[in-house]
Fold this protein.
Amino acid sequence: MNRHLSISYLGLRRLIGVIAIVHPALLYFGGLFIFGLSLQPSMSHYYYTGMRDVFVGIDVCTGVFLLCYHGYSWQDRLLSLLAGVSAIIVALFPTLPLGEASDLQKTIAAVHAAAAIVFLICLAVFCLVLFVRSDAGQVISRQKRWRNRLYRLCGANIVLVLVVLGLYGCWPTMQDRLSQTPFIFYLECLAFLSFGLAWLVKGQALLADVNQQHASSR
């Protein structure tokens, strides 16, 4: 029974990782080949294109899977709850459309932005704090040390994205120059690729201990 539960947890982690990695690619290539779209300024702007259902569906799926992930402790459960709810809010509360926006759209976009920030912060904490932990007395294997390095690298990438987005939000000149370019899309790609890679590693798709028999090992 425990073995089946472990496999289930590994599968959930891998699924979250795969979804995160393919999310930007699906939006871009789907928009390009199905609707003839150029690259949008951000992933969120695909909400206003023919790829809306894909954008909303993937974000909601990501949120639901995160809500189903309980981890090892109350910290894991709380963080996955915050991340899951934030992902669903990002999907259901769209960003500002290109061009003129009403006051209601601006309010909805503010909710979207706040949820996106919370989501990214949660992903960074997963990588930098929770994923690198080890059980008391556990012997740290060479693979675990490599996994921790990769988690920290992924977490640092997400923090870098948060910092640049913060500068973008506080620097009007930067917004004027870059708002009509895919600048934010590229930042989001870095964050999602880092997020997805960390979860694939957590699901033992990469750098797994050779003799590891269950998923409870961190």
Summary: Helices lie at 2-35, 52-68, 74-92, 103-130, 142-170, 172-178, 183-202. Residues 2-35 form the longest helix (34 residues). Residues 1-7, 213-218 have pLDDT under 50 and may be disordered. The chain has seven helices and no strands.
